[in-house]
Amino acid sequence: MIIDGHMYCFPELDSLAGYNTIEEKFYYIQQELGGHHQPVWKTSDKSKSDNSTLIDPKTNQFQKIKWRKSAGRLDWEFNGELYTKQYLPPMLENLNSTPEYMISEMDYAGVDMGIIHTSPHLGLLNQYLRNIVEKYPDRFIRLTSLEEKKIPTQIEKSINEIANEKRYTETMGFHFHTKNFYESGLSENWIGNTMREFWDAITSLNMPIFFSLGLKSKKNFEKIKFEDYIEEQNILLKWMELYPDIDVVITHGLPWRKFFVENHEKFPEEIWNVFKHPKCNLQLMLPIQIGNIFEYPWTETEEIISVCTEKIGANRLIWGTDMPLVGRFCTYKQALNQIKIHCNFLSNFDKLNILGQNIQRIMKLNIQEKN
Questions:
Q1: Low-confidence ranges of the chain (pLDDT < 50)
Q2: pTM exceeding 0.85
Q3: Which strand (E) or helix (H) includes residue 42?
Q4: pLDDT for res 223
Q5: Residue ranges covered by each domain of the chain
Q6: 3-10+91-370 maps to which CATH number?
Q7: What sign does the CA torsion over 288, 294, 297, 302 have?
Q8: Contact, 251 vs 211, CB < 8 A?
Q9: CA pair distance 286, 283, nearest whole angstrom
Q10: Which of 50, 63, 122, 221 has the fewest Cβ atoms within 10 Å of its own Cβ atom?
Q11: d(CA 321, CA 325)
């Protein structure tokens, strides 16, 4: 069974999608697009621009803009000019990703199931995703999430929401974006005393936790320092020492873009320390990160995949795509075939693990029921 360990279904990008106001939603959209590597251009003449039209690079403050929707994209007006970027792939002309669309892509590529991830710029989607897995239980598993910056002041409410979702859906995971927690204003990190009650309760629900490791700033992985990222990994390592029996998945992989953009700079040895914990797993997800740097089948990435296999083990690597967003760079079949057909240094057994067996184990799937 082939399982995509990281995909998305979401309603129209310019819809409320669980927020009380559209301003709340567009806060996260501006944060996401303003730190993203997709190129910006001026719509009037298609001349190149940059993310400074969204976020001031000197202050990291949001620019004052007005949003518009056109040609299957979100545009923004800044200082009297209209700018845009192709954040969603052009095939998503309605700015959404329906389960039916995803199933058609899965069927064509040969993907049996998908783990639907979450992100605040796509919405607060617990109920939305619950409805999807209830309708298509043999095709999707969902992750739940919360608005991380609000958790410290809403501990009981946050616990109750996830516990309630677990009652509806036995097989699910919880997705936590560390970057958004730091906007809570707390001086302590996300495993400090304030959050212990929350984590004690969430881990008691006996489900895997998916961590998207982001730093305190809005900068993306192209600009971070390795030591800052390793500091965040060390926080996760302390979390796993507190909850040693919980399966953990680091989403999106390591800072792949920084590694490849900076002349194949080697990862520092410390970056592997977090994987000394036997419950720590890694999503690979290279095409979505470097798909605009290299071409399919991305043979330039095979060296680091081999290193990950050696340092972590093929039994703890998870294939994921970020589909449909990976459609910016390649087809779904190509994203699958990078591992399935290429990467010849991997054994057939390793490929089976990476393409589905590992996530089956982590999600505690009953394979016979899913076939």
A1: 218-219, 369-371
A2: yes
A3: strand 40-42
A4: 64
A5: 3-10+91-370, 39-84
A6: 3.20.20.140
A7: negative
A8: yes
A9: 9
A10: 50
A11: 8
